[in-house]
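@channel sequence for tomorrow's demo:
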Amino acid sequence: MSSPLRIATPIVEAPAAGDVDPPRPSTTGPMAPALLLTADDLARELAVSVKTIRRLDGMGKLPRALKIGNHAKRWPRAVIVDWLGAGCPPRAEWEAFYAAMPRARKR
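C-alpha cells (generated this afternoon):
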C-alpha cells in the first residue's frame, strides 16, 4: 500500500514539433492533491475515521485547522505533511515548533 500523503504530479503532454505554447497538464492524468483538506480528506489520508479526526482535533492533538466561514474547517496539506514529519506532536508543542521554524521552510 502506498504512503497516505503521496504527492501526485500531473502528467504533462509533450509539445508537438514547432509548437510554441507551453505544455499543459493532461486532463486525463491524475489530479494534483488538494491544498486544503476537509475532515473527510484528512481521515482518508491518515487511515482513521472522521469521528477520530474530530475527537483528536477537540483534544488538541492535531494542528489547528483554518476556519472558513462559520463552520467549515480545513487543514493545509503542507502543515499536515510537516506535522507528520515532526512525529505528530500535540497542537501546543507543534505550534511552538512551527513558529520557530525558519520562514524559508514554512510553506
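heads up for whoever presents: The chain has four helices and three strands.
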